[in-house]
Design goal:
The protein has no helices and 27 strands. The N and C termini lie far apart (39 Å). Helix content is 0%, strand content 35%. A hairpin with a 4-residue loop joins strand 26 (247-249) and strand 27 (254-257). The strands form 6 sheets. The chain has a 7-stranded parallel sheet with strand order 1-3-6-9-12-15-20, with no helix packed on it. The protein has a 7-stranded parallel sheet with strand order 2-5-8-11-14-17-22, with no helix packed on it. A 7-stranded parallel sheet has the order 4-7-10-13-16-21-24, with no helix packed on it.
Length: 297
């Protein structure tokens, strides 16, 4: 912040990164932030270093937790950080196991996780297993989770969630969350109480779509289950339980929407702060948004 800078830190797919990072001790502001991303445009890089909306074993930058030196793949305790376009594999053997953990933000802190693929293996036996989590943070701090594909956080852990808020405020918008014990969950942690606004999310193949107390404005979420079990301040907006989804290839973990999908296409609500999807495709202004991370061109 002292230099009035924005730091854009580019990640390259030369090898899987098993030296998992902790992002801490940066002095930032809303206009002086860290942007950690995979370049993909021709003005940034010769060959894209980003996934194409589906997990790639080669050709896409990946953070892998298998080394087990910590319990999360990326831990963020600095404010004003934007993580964009990474593949994150939470596959530690035993113990707590997570994709992205955000903690100890200041009261006006803001972190954004967008256009990432966050993958578990439905196998951990520890106390916690999550895709994205925020905890020990004031209620006014915000974690934005936008246009991500999150899957595989089931198994036998004590708490398994795709998106989890133990404190602070979570804004979960246009994510596709698959095969998690709970798609999105709010709980408390000590003196902190988590809150969440969830809109335009797909919760598919989860034992519970969403649970806990959610903020006013929550709605336009879809699941194949018969109901959502969350409580929403002032009542939830329109939701779409008992929906049937068409994915390009569920068996290959390709959760792009098929052209014949009826569960998510054109059922979403336009959100001013989101203009593209996980692939960078434009979302229409006004009516016609698709629910989930993918917008069918």
């Amino acid at each position: 912040m002292a230099g009035n800078e924005v730091r854009h830190l580019a990640c390259y797919a030369d090898a899987v990164d098993t030296n998992v990072p902790e992002i801490a001790s940066w002095t930032t502001s809303a206009s002086n932030y860290l942007h950690i991303f995979t370049p993909r445009h021709s003005i940034e890089v010769g060959v894209s270093q980003r996934h194409a909306g589906v997990w790639q074993d080669t050709g896409a930058f990946t953070v892998d937790l298998s080394g087990g030196q910590t319990d999360v793949a990326i831990r963020i305790s600095s404010d004003d950080v934007w993580i964009e376009g990474l593949q994150i594999h939470a596959n530690r053997s035993g113990g707590s196991n997570g994709g992205v953990n955000v903690t100890a933000l200041r009261a006006d802190g803001r972190v954004r996780v967008s256009e990432c693929i966050i993958r578990g293996d439905n196998a951990t036996v520890g106390s916690q297993y999550f895709g994205v989590d925020i905890w020990d943070t004031p209620s006014t701090a915000v974690l934005e989770v936008v246009n991500n594909v999150i899957y595989g956080f089931g198994g036998s852990a004590g708490i398994q969630s795709g998106i989890w808020a133990e404190s602070g405020e979570r804004r979960a918008v246009n994510n596709t969350v698959v095969s998690c014990a709970v798609g999105a969950r709010t709980t408390s942690h000590g003196a902190y109480v988590g809150s969440m606004l969830a809109s335009n999310n797909i919760f598919y193949g989860c034992s519970t779509a969403a649970s806990g107390s959610f903020l006013s404005g929550t709605g336009n979420n879809a699941t194949e289950l018969a109901s959502f079990v969350y409580s929403v301040a002032g009542g939830a907006g329109t939701d779409f339980p008992s929906s049937s989804f068409g994915f390009v290839s569920e068996s290959n973990k390709n959760f792009h929407l098929a052209n014949n999908d009826t569960g998510a296409r054109s059922r979403g609500a336009a959100i001013d702060s989101v203009s593209t999807d996980i692939d960078g495709d434009s979302r229409p202004q006004g009516a016609g948004w698709d629910i989930g991370a993918d917008e069918v061109p």
